């Protein structure tokens, strides 16, 4: 999971991979995976404190309400496809947020990268 974020964001430096303290995130294998992404630091919310992880909790609420089938999925392949479609096809590119001047995450990131590119070129 960290590698996907790292690669799709063009190997950024000085970023956090934030999560809750689920067993998969606290495993040695996951910590090593984050460490292999140079410049990425693992961040975890405090145990039992959902407020530390509010953006992630909000994302999953949106997924469940807006996209997830009420009766679940037939198999892991169908679930995986639905999650990918939601994140990359809808949430990132289409779904208008009620904050951030109603800009989608992809548009916000595009503007951020363009602004920083101009700073580097000047």
Automatic annotation (TrEMBL):
Residues 1-113 form the Integrase catalytic domain. PROSITE patterns: INTEGRASE. Pfam families: rve_3. Coiled coil: none annotated. This is Integrase catalytic domain-containing protein. The lineage of its organism: Bacteria, Pseudomonadati, Pseudomonadota, Gammaproteobacteria, Moraxellales.
